[in-house]
Amino acid sequence: MDALAKTLGHLPLALAQASAYIKKTYINISDYVKLYNDRKRALLSDKTLLETFPVGANRETAAIVYVTWDITVEAIKRESSLAVKWLTACAYLGSSPIPQFLLEIFADNQENNPSSETFYETLGILSSYSMLTVKKDHSMLVHNLVQEVTRLKSEESGKSTEEIKTVFQLLKESFPYGSDKLEDYAKKRQLLPHLEAFLSHIDVWLEEKKPLEKQRIEKDYLVYLLVWMDDGYSDLGNPRKQKKLLEQALEPV
Questions:
Q1: Domain positions in the chain
Q2: Contact present, 99 and 191 (Cβ < 8 Å)
């Protein structure tokens, strides 16, 4: 274990993912270290990819997590394509607990008549590989570094546009806009942090877009997100945020 810990820079997240992979696949530690080093050389030979990592000490941290993530996701793909798709969707959400009903709606959109077992299998696979933590209420927590690395992979593979559209549709179906039902107030409270996080990810994503494309995306996504958030903060009694969001929504796109 000392060799593994040293290789992974003693990073708790990377060690958790590596340990989970070793436990799931029965690979021995020395073979995992070799797999990691081989994969690291292959992945990080791409200078364009390296430039997407943070500058300074955080670059090495990001690189370690990226490589362990890549090894783990390859194994997850062999077990469940839905689990990989859900992990990618989670990357564009917030660090707050992700409610169970979001995964249920996502599974409905991705598969024909998914069973309740599909939901639990997806959670079980991702949890067993230490890609997320499942709480008692079946809500999910995804480490922010896992989210960041997953988004980097999406950008590298050129799939960001498609994946952002998928998450937008998920939030559109999930957010009970205009509803005054008591149970929907709870849903709005759970979803607002994820709407805010998704909005910030889109803002970053838009920085590299051309003006006309940026204008189209703002019309397609940003105004809707701001209006939904205004509705939520209005219902939850936060007029200050409501006013700020309305001003943003009324700005010309």
A1: 2-140, 175-250
A2: yes
